[in-house]
Specification:
The complex is a heterodimer of chains A (274) and B (205). Chain A is mostly helical and 274 residues long. Chain A contains eleven helices and seven strands. In chain A, the strands form three sheets. In chain A, strands 6-5-7 form a three-stranded mixed β-sheet. In chain A, strands 1-2 form a two-stranded antiparallel sheet. A two-stranded antiparallel sheet of chain A has the order 3-4. The chains are: A mainly alpha (274), B mainly alpha (205).
Chain lengths: 274, 205
């Protein structure tokens, strides 16, 4: 964080009028960092762990019209193999002939193995404030937690995987909507904030490695786990765009781009956020 | 001071895209199709939000660093899109402007039917008054904005134009084109101009 404060100072050093404000930014940033450190001081206090447990129970229970569990679901390392699977996602799945991130793959398994109706699952896929994460999100939290402390190591070598990364990068800088925003508007430059909220510089792998691995994360301000698909949906909401469909090609492409940016970064799911 | 301020804005812009050298590798038509299918519940009157206009398309294609000729074309086009108050008065009430600067309400899919006017959300990106410590740093500090410009007539007009259409002065600015995109009304923009340029506004205290 000292680096971040220094960079804020550097960018605006020419701006005589902000010299005072920069000192104020330092103090503000330190206070916010103290809050973040307190959240992380006791990892077992993370309520997201309860959702990981709920997700495990859901994963192993016979459910849906077909009354089967998801233990035959192939997350890329073979049917039922959960350990380390998240660390190698997103990836191309030949059975679906498309690249999928974790949540899109779980959605696919719920549809194909358990017989759930996809349209029902994507209608209201994310929790409102105060509600717990939905079943799919709880399972994503469980699967991601089974790669905790591993490093992001998706190969992303298949031509369709490479094309998906490129598509994600294109979408990252693509402006649209009444505010003219792209993801890059907030996440390209270093050390910036919206109000008091620090913005990760996702265009920079060094910074992406620090933050992408925290998702899914328990978000204190909304008192539930937010998944990566939900995070993308919420950004587009703030950008004044319509509702991003869970599992859409655009959502997968952005997550694949971000995961590629975070390659080698440690997975710390479920994370704990402001 | 104005030169320094301009320099900071320009530097802020040129520092950012250090990773921006590579051109988008994907055909824009493909990106358009992918975006269209990603928002299947968007009602007909929201479809235009999915499609970038010519200016956004040029900015995305050049990663917000358009070559000079493109930048000039953008600024010319956006300048022509500015509408001025019929009575010629460019300043409203700073008190109303302050409320608009605080509000991020409006145009999100959870904001319908509208429960109030759209906000300008200026504090999300700009420092504006010493009283408000919860401000963002995406844009430059606007503290003492009017005072630093001696509350000049030409500066009042420039502030109006900047808020109405940020890209008339700076192609591919990150700031929304609040007037041209119908986010804020002319009267709301006048109130924001007053917030920046009134000698008695907290911005200049």
């Amino acid at each position: 964080m000292t680096t971040r404060a220094t960079l804020i100072a550097a960018v605006c050093a020419l701006f005589a009028a902000t010299a005072v404000a920069t000192g104020q930014d330092d103090a503000t940033e330190k206070a916010i960092q103290k809050y973040r450190d307190m959240l992380r001081a006791d990892p077992w206090s993370n309520p997201g762990l309860l959702d990981a447990d709920r997700g495990e129970a859901l994963w192993t229970s016979a459910r849906g019209p077909n009354k089967v569990s998801l233990e035959k679901c192939d997350l890329g390392k073979g049917p039922g193999k959960v350990e380390g699977a998240f660390a190698e996602l997103p990836r191309y799945f030949a059975d679906a002939d498309r690249v999928m991130d974790l949540e899109t793959r779980i959605l696919w398994c719920m549809e194909k193995l358990q017989g759930f109706n996809r349209a029902d699952l994507v209608r209201r896929p994310h929790p409102g404030g105060g509600q717990p994460v939905k079943e799919l999100g709880a399972m994503a939290t469980y699967i991601a937690s089974k790669s905790a402390e591993m490093k992001f190591a998706a190969k992303l070598e298949h031509p369709k995987e490479r094309e998906t990364v490129a598509l994600g990068e294109t979408l990252f800088v693509r402006r649209s909507g009444p505010f003219d925003f792209a993801c890059a508007t907030c996440h390209e430059a270093k050390g910036l904030r919206i109000r008091l909220q620090g913005l990760p510089q996702l265009a920079n792998p060094e910074e992406a490695r620090k933050v992408v691995g925290e998702w899914p994360a328990y978000r204190v301000s909304s008192t539930h786990v937010m998944t990566m698909q939900h995070r993308m949906y919420d950004c587009y909401w703030q950008m004044r765009m319509p509702e991003l469909e869970l599992g859409s090609e655009a959502s997968v492409a952005l997550i694949t781009y971000l995961t590629n940016q975070a390659r080698g970064g440690e997975i710390a799911a479920p994370g704990l956020k402001r | 001071m104005k030169i320094i301020a301009t320099a900071c804005v320009l530097i802020g812009l040129s520092v950012a895209p250090a990773f921006a050298q590579q051109k988008p590798a994907v055909d824009p038509a493909r990106a358009d199709a992918v975006i269209k299918s990603a928002f299947p519940t968007a009602p007909p009157d929201w479809q235009s939000r999915l499609v970038p206009d010519e200016t956004m398309r040029q900015c995305s294609a050049h990663h917000n660093r358009p070559p000079r000729a493109v930048a000039e074309a953008i600024q010319q086009r956006e300048k022509a899109a500015i509408a001025y108050p019929p009575d010629g008065k460019l300043m409203g009430e700073w008190q109303k402007g302050e409320r608009l600067a605080q509000s991020g309400y409006g145009l999100r899919f959870t904001d319908y039917p509208a429960r109030g006017p759209n906000g300008g959300n200026c504090y999300a990106c700009h420092q504006m008054t010493v009283q408000e410590v919860s401000y963002g740093t995406l844009g430059p500090s606007l503290l003492n904005y009017g005072k630093l410009r001696n509350f000049g007539e030409a500066e009042i007009k420039a502030a109006y134009e900047k808020i109405y259409n940020s890209q008339a002065a700076l192609a591919c600015s990150n700031m929304p084109r609040f007037g041209s995109n119908n986010v804020l009304t002319i009267d709301q923009i006048k109130d924001l101009v007053a917030l920046l340029m009134s000698p008695d506004s907290p911005v200049n205290k």
